[in-house]
Amino acid sequence: DKVLAELIEPYELRVAKLREFLEDVKPSLRYDIVPLIDPYGPSVTDPDLQCLVVSEETRRGGEAVNKRRLENGLPELALYEILLMKDPDHSQNEEEKISSSSLRQRLLGMLLRPPRQDPALPSRPYVIGLTGGTGSGKTSIAKLLGHLGAFLIDADKLGHAVYVPGGPAYEQVVAAFGAEILNEDGTINRKVLGAKVFGNQERLKSLTDIVWPEMARMVKEQIREADAQG
């Protein structure tokens, strides 16, 4: 059920740790380490197996193995259940047992190696773009980066600024979509404008062709300002 790939330990690393453990326990031990490409592996096809080590949480898997073995005409395996060691230092979001997932979760967000130096990239300012749907966490991440010293540029605020009277896109938008988009005080009624363009690809492109270049210019101005502030 893990969907965050960073929490899954690489197969090669797991094999190395397992081999080290087995050699620690008994150097003369004979063993095979095989990758599992399905939930069962060789446990349901190998006639030489006699025992399966399970834990309380994997016992049902062991029972499923025996059911499949009987279907394949093989004898059941003895299920030897072991207790899992508890992690006294686990956090609320981590598993109670000692788990590689928990250990790797603690590494998330830590710098594992220095950033790659690319001579083709300007040394500063380093620009990060945050995108995502409503409620995806853009504001929260921006605040965290701001606390770390980042200069924040809010594209939503710039989007509003281009429309205000005297703003860089105001005259062009009014000329393109007519005086009926204006409130009594001369400001652009964004709801009326929105009703004109959304659902109409041609009108929407006309609007974005006016607004987006102006927003991009304002962003570049703010990046230069960030550079000047160091």
Provide a brief overview of the structure:
The chain has 230 residues and is mostly helical. 42% of the residues lie in helices and 4% in strands.
* Separate helix tally: 8
Total discrete domains: 2
Structural category: mainly alpha
Instruction: Write down the CATH topology of the largest domain.
Output: Rossmann fold
Distance between the termini: 44 Å
Q: Mean pLDDT across all residues, rounded?
A: 89
Question: At the first level of CATH, what is the class of the largest domain?
Answer: Alpha Beta
Strand order within the widest sheet?
A: 1-2
CATH superfamily of the largest domain: HUPs
Order of helices and strands: HEHEHHHHHH
Unreliable runs: none
Quaternary assembly = single chain
Task: Kindly describe this structure.
- Helix 2 links the parallel strand 1 and strand 2.
- The longest helix has 29 residues.
- A two-stranded parallel ribbon has the order 1-2.
- The protein folds into two domains: 103 residues, Rossmann fold, CATH 3.40.50.620; 92 residues, Rossmann fold, CATH 3.40.50.300.
- The model has no long low-confidence stretch (mean pLDDT 89).
- The two termini are 44 Å apart.
- By secondary structure, it is mainly alpha-helical.
- The radius of gyration is 30 Å and the shape is elongated.
Chain-wise SSE layout:
Layout: H1 11-25, E1 51-55, H2 59-71, E2 78-82, H3 100-105, H4 138-147, H5 155-161, H6 170-177, H7 190-197, H8 201-229
Looking at this protein, list some descriptive labels.
single chain; 230 residues; mainly alpha; Rossmann fold; 2 domains; two-stranded parallel sheet; 8 helices; 2 strands; elongated; ATP binding; Depp_CoAkinase; P-loop_NTPase
